[in-house]
User: Which sequence fits this backbone?
């Protein structure tokens, strides 16, 4: 399970790969939606041309037959406009929303991959990328579809102006690329400002998430003012970034509309001059005026296209950093043996640990007491299987197989670590309890609720297991969250279960009930094939353990029963029986 790079590692994270994948995945519906929008825009372009033809060929000669023909043509254009707009817009909107969903799922899948990914982003920042970033990247599809449709309309309009008068057409042909080229020079700045805004907003969201999740401890130490000051500072940074991004976007938009408006005035004015000079007919003048009023729309869409792509590219860069992040672990080829599985920790050194060795036979209930909390944290981190093997020395074996060489999803079913600080998820008590084993039978859930003393958490609510749980379990007290999390670990029923201080938020009576429940469920009912390691200083939990391993100065100092250590070891008594 050595660290490895993702397949895309080593290349620049410019977001191009994400955008290419976005278009490749939608190569079916996206062209159809774009084609319909093109037809819609071309039909709109033909409206002023059709009106000009009606004036020249119907009204001036008073031709009733031509009136019917051109009238039917005009009605047909309006029907085409309605149909193509409705279905084209619907298809493009569907493609964008589906792609945003796919990107969100990709980000979540990557983050939740059992192999783990090396990410420095906080939870709030990841949330911003997976929501707003995914939407911005997917919106590039809409930007391109509408840009292509606008280009089709502009080509038809310019072609009509060229037909009416060569000079009129040339004015538009020359002015359009000059306008678009000048606006394109601002795109890199827009990308940078958009990226800075996304980053600042992500940090603000991450800080808000941290502060909300730690609100109770903050209140306990009187740290609300300091926390509020930190959030205000980061929020101001995000605000300044948003203002800078909005300023450049506003300047871009105003410059675009101004340039296009000036071009429309020039075209209409010159068309009026040509009509007065007798070089174009009244109908052609109407067509020129109509096209000059219509052109700012497509030209504005073309001018906005670089900005939309720049914003989408900035978001794609952040998505690419997540989707292309290195995996922490590499799946191994080995499988675990069936039946009894012992646990062996062989000469493990990590942080404060110094060559720790320990053997836990299948069926044993072992307690671990660490005089230094850092030793306990390091041991739990190694057993969690979330560390690449190049970050620690030694081996962890389950059933004689190095756990580092087993696929993470299989390893986690055999060796499960329930950390000291646990989180619940939005849903119900029942969905949280079954999170690690959705197929668990009702009887297994009931037994786990009793063993974890979580029964009263269920019975105190009318909905029982269907009682709603808010984000991070904030609707429950600390003790209730701890017991529900313990029930979740017990329902998962791994071969080896590691519990880190599972009863710090409950009273002494409940703690005794939990200690007895764990021993009964995993070690005294049925065959003794499951092993449990409890890292704790609780006398209630340690008294039910077969043996207690004492860690001191990063090493195994003593191994004995709780009763013997309590009777003979002064340090043990001081820490445990305080």
Assistant:
């Amino acid at each position: 399970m050595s660290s490895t790079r993702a397949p895309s590692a080593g290349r620049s994270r410019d977001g191009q790969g994400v955008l290419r994948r976005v278009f490749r995945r939608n190569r079916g519906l996206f062209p159809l939606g774009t084609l319909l929008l093109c037809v819609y825009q071309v039909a709109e372009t033909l409206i002023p041309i059709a009106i000009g033809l009606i004036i020249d060929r119907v009204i001036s000669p008073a031709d009733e037959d031509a009136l019917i023909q051109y009238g039917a043509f005009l009605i047909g254009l309006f029907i085409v406009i309605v149909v193509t707009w409705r279905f084209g817009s619907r298809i493009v909107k569907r493609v964008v929303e589906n792609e945003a969903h796919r990107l969100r799922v990709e980000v979540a899948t990557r983050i939740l991959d059992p192999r783990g990914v090396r990410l420095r982003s906080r939870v709030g920042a990841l949330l911003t990328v997976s929501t707003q970033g995914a939407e911005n990247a997917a919106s590039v599809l809409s930007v391109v579809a509408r840009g292509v449709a606008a280009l089709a309309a502009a080509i038809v309009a310019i072609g009509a102006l060229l037909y009416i008068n060569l000079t009129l057409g040339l004015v538009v042909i020359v002015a359009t690329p000059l306008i678009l080229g000048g606006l394109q020079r601002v795109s890199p700045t827009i990308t940078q400002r958009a990226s800075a805004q996304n980053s600042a907003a992500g940090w603000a969201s991450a800080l808000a998430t941290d502060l909300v999740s730690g609100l109770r401890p903050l209140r306990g130490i009187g740290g609300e003012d300091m926390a509020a000051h930190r959030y205000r500072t980061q929020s101001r940074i995000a605000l300044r970034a948003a203002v800078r991004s909005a300023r450049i976007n506003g300047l871009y938009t105003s410059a675009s509309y101004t340039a296009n408006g000036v071009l429309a005035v020039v075209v209409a004015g010159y068309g009026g001059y040509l009509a007065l000079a007798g070089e174009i007919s009244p109908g052609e003048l109407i067509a020129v005026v109509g096209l000059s009023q219509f052109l700012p729309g497509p030209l504005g869409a073309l001018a906005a296209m670089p900005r939309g792509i720049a914003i989408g590219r900035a978001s794609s860069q952040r998505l690419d950093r997540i989707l292309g992040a290195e995996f922490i672990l590499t799946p191994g080829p080995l499988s675990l043996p069936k039946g009894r599985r012992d646990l062996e920790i062989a000469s493990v050194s990590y942080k404060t640990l110094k060559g720790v060795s320990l053997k836990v036979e299948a069926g044993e209930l072992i307690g671990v007491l660490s005089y230094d909390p850092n030793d306990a944290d390091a041991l739990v981190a190694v057993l969690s299987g979330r560390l690449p093997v190049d970050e620690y020395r030694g081996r962890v074996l389950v059933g004689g197989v190095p756990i580092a060489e087993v696929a993470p999803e299989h390893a986690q079913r055999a060796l499960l670590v329930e950390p000291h600080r646990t989180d619940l998820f939005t849903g119900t008590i029942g969905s949280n309890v079954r999170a690690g084993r959705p197929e668990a039978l009702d009887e297994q859930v009931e037994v786990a609720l009793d063993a974890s003393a979580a029964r009263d958490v269920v019975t105190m609510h009318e909905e029982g297991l269907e009682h709603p749980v808010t984000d991070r379990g904030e609707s429950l007290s600390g003790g209730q969250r701890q017991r529900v999390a313990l029930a979740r670990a017990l329902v998962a029923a791994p071969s080896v279960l590691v519990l880190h201080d599972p009863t710090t938020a409950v009273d002494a009576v409940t703690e005794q009930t939990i200690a007895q429940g764990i021993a009964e469920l995993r070690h005294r009912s049925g065959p003794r094939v499951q092993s449990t390691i409890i890292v704790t200083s609780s006398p209630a939990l340690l008294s039910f353990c077969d043996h207690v391993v004492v860690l001191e100065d990063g090493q195994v100092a003593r191994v004995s029963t709780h009763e013997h250590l309590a009777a003979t070891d002064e340090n043990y008594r001081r820490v445990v029986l305080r």
In short: DSSP finds 20 helices and twelve strands in the chain. Residues 12-165+300-328 form a domain with the ABC transporter transmembrane region fold fold (CATH 1.20.1560.10).
